[in-house]
Design a protein that fits this description.
- The radius of gyration is 37 Å and the shape is rod-shaped.
- Helix 7 runs antiparallel to helix 8, helix 8 packs antiparallel against helix 9 and helix 8 packs parallel to helix 10.
- The two termini are 53 Å apart.
- Helix content is 60%, strand content 0%.
- The chain is built from 21 helices and no strands.
- It has three domains: 148 residues, Alpha Horseshoe (Serine Threonine Protein Phosphatase 5, Tetratricopeptide repeat); 85 residues, Serine Threonine Protein Phosphatase 5, Tetratricopeptide repeat (Alpha Horseshoe), CATH 1.25.40; 142 residues, no CATH class.
């Protein structure tokens, strides 16, 4: 089915009344009407309802013979005998009440594929009788058949306000909504490709109006705002889209990426954790999000240490202090040795504690700890075992941490120290290694 150009965002002139007006007029009409004539309900799967043209007509409008002719014509039509139906409707159209028979002739045209002529008849009928439900439904069905998603959606919504328990109208409204949303997605995509962000935003807002509880419009708003560099607007739209439907993995990746760009690392961690359960390719992104979240919440000195390409002993001491609670809370067995290069610096308190707990030695001749000396991987391996001993609370250590002098290779193999051929350690590696050692010592997985 071909789609009319930009049918999602534009709408031609209509003669049917707005939903409230249609409902009010029908209620007024029913005050002087008898119950609708008995007729088989419209087929919910048929493209056209061909609802009984006598529906909503005032009582006694049709005489007995006219009513019989109309019923027989409708029966012929539904049985596929379009020529017989046309003959009955044509004779009735010259009667004193031509409206239902003119609608019957429009039905015959619809059943015969003469859509243009049927549309002209329906427009003329609705110009004369805007509240005539069977004609409004027939035009809505015609719009749906021709891919006029906006028009059919609006009409079905108005009709469903009049007949709220009609299963066919509810189904057709849902189908029209789906078609319209697909059309609006196409419109927004084409607009973004053409660089027309304003048009893309209009399509997105139209999608929100059509389905305010669905994610489609908010996803489109996300794309439009992100393409324009309005990241906060994009985030607001993303939150609403994910609240409506958090199951879209591809959109989740885009939102997590935006969370990283806007330094919402806690949100990024939450999304990547969910995605990584079924998509292993997200594990690396999850590790990065966790690192950034942890770093974001550190004071300045340990934050600089975590981001350092080559960590020093003073910086490692700062990370030990802030990342390992057992280091801060451990009892110091003896007063620490004095190191002249441990005073008057941002990491002084952490460095003195690390010396007291045996992480770094103080040279007797110079009374220096080498605060600015880069940490080697071998030195970090020894520090990680000491961390594990503190974190285990005295419980025996298992695996690679049980060794008296674990090697960097052994710690890398068991997942605590990231594998590398470099001699020195980056802050990022130290952070992850400290996390791995403490998790393993507390009985969890180092990874």
């Amino acid at each position: 089915m071909s789609r009319p150009a930009r049918s999602g965002t534009s709408r031609g002139p209509r003669t049917v009344a707005a939903g409230g007006g249609l409902a009010a007029a029908l209620l007024l009409l029913s005050g002087c009407a008898t119950a609708p004539p008995a007729a088989s309900p419209p087929d919910p799967d048929a493209p056209f309802a061909f609802r009984d043209p006598a529906f909503t007509l005032p009582s006694r409008t049709l005489g007995e013979e006219e009513a019989k002719r109309l019923a027989r014509g409708l029966s012929d039509l539904r049985s596929g005998r379009t020529d017989e139906a046309a003959g009955r409707f044509r004779r009735g159209a010259s009667s004193r009440v031509p409206l239902p028979f003119r609608l019957g002739l429009a039905y015959v045209d619809l059943a015969s594929g003469r859509n243009g002529r049927a549309r002209a008849t329906l427009e003329a009928i609705l110009e004369e009788a805007p509240t005539y439900v069977p004609a409004a439904e027939a035009r809505a069905d015609l719009d749906a058949t021709e891919g006029r998603f906006r028009e059919s959606f609006d009409s079905y919504r108005e009709l469903l306000a009049v007949l709220p328990d009609d299963p066919r109208l509810a189904r057709r409204l849902g189908e029209a909504r789906s078609g319209l949303l697909a059309s609006l997605r196409d419109d927004a995509g084409e607009a973004l490709e053409a660089g027309d962000v304003a048009a893309a935003r209009r399509a997105a807002l139209a999608a929100v109006e059509v389905a305010p509880d669905a994610p489609d419009g908010y996803r489109l708003l996300f794309r439009a705002a992100e393409s324009e560099g309005k990241l906060e607007d994009a985030w607001a739209a993303a939150e609403k889209a994910r609240a409506a439907d958090p199951s879209d993995a591809e959109f989740g990746k885009a939102v997590a990426d935006l969370a990283m760009k806007t330094e919402r690392y806690a949100d990024a961690v939450e999304i990547y954790e969910e995605l990584s359960r079924t998509d292993p390719s997200c594990v690396e992104a999850l590790d990065e999000a966790r690192f950034q979240f942890q770093t974001q919440n550190l004071p300045e000195a340990p934050r600089r240490a975590a981001l350092s390409p080559r960590i020093t002993r003073a910086q490692l001491a700062a990370l030990l202090w802030w990342l390992v609670p057992e280091v801060r809370g451990a009892r110091v067995p003896t007063p620490p040795e004095v190191a002249v290069d441990a005073v008057d610096r941002a990491e002084s308190q952490a460095l003195v504690r690390a010396i007291a707990l045996g992480f770094f030695p103080v040279t007797r001749d110079t009374h220096r700890v080498g605060a600015d000396q880069p940490v080697t991987r071998v030195e970090l391996a020894g520090a990680l075992r000491r961390v594990a001993l503190l974190a285990s609370g005295g419980a025996p250590l298992d695996g690679c941490l049980a060794e008296e002098r674990p090697t960097p290779a052994a710690l890398a193999e068991c997942g605590i120290l990231p594998p590398s051929s470099a001699r020195f350690v980056a802050g990022r590696e130290a952070v992850r290694a400290l996390e791995g050692a403490t998790r393993a010592a507390r009985g969890g997985s180092p990874r």
